[in-house]
Amino acid sequence: MKFCHYCAGQVTHHIPPGDDKLRYCCLSCDVVFYQNPNNIVGTLPISGDKVLLCRRAIEPRKGLWTLPAGFMENGETTLEGAIRETREEAGAELNLTEDSLYTLFNLPNINQVYLFFKGELASSEFSAGIESLEVELFSEEDVPWDDIAFAVVKSTLQQYFEDRRKQHYPVRMYDVRYSPDRKAEITLISESH
């Protein structure tokens, strides 16, 4: 960032008075530009003993499989965003409620928070959206485990199939940190009972 969005003055990167973090600050009007984590919201769509996955048509991780998810928009709740992303990427409708939250992942290294909601497909109709090459239902043994796009998706899927065997679906929160070789280290922080 070089210029202020408000006055077009020069912007520098420094710690403003009363703060302890580097921020972009306007030298002319003294506005401080706070950068906060991005929320990614998505769903774990279920139909019987299968889950619905999308093969990505966009980067990052183009061609790999994921759960329908994307960036939350201003003016929507996390649940509304998850429902919208599922419609956009998978052409699917889900039966979701406010208590459908299933997994939450904190990714402080890349300033993201992922929230996945678990729900049943409302019908057998689904289709690839513009960001998906294809959409398909998979049983546990058929999931393309080596071609899952993101560690948080793989973790959510593995946890779901384990929970399904127990018929118990607690809400879990994880921290995800990346090692220097970009391997995800996922730590369970809390679990509801």
Commentary on this structure:
Helix content is 15%, strand content 38%. The protein has helices at residues 78-90, 151-166; strands spanning 11-14, 23-26, 32-33, 38-47, 50-56, 65-66, 69-71, 94-95, 101-107, 112-121, 132-139, 172-178, 184-191. The chain is elongated. The chain starts with 10 loop residues before the first strand and ends with a strand. The strands form 2 sheets. Strands 4, 5, 6, 7, 8, 9, 10, 11, 12 and 13 form a 10-stranded mixed sheet that branches. A 3-stranded antiparallel sheet has the order 1-2-3, with no helix packed on it. With 193 residues, it is of the alpha+beta class. It folds into 2 domains: 1-35, Single Sheet (Ubiquitin Ligase Nedd4, Chain: W), CATH 2.20.70.10; 38-191, Nucleoside Triphosphate Pyrophosphohydrolase. The mean pLDDT is 95. The protein is built from 2 helices and 13 strands, in the order E-E-E-E-E-E-E-H-E-E-E-E-H-E-E.
In short:
This protein is α+β, with helices and mostly antiparallel strands and about 190 residues long. It has helices spanning about 80-90, 150-165, and strands at about 10-15, 25, 30-35, 40-45, 50-55, 65, 70, 95, 100-105, 110-120, 130-140, 170-180, 185-190.
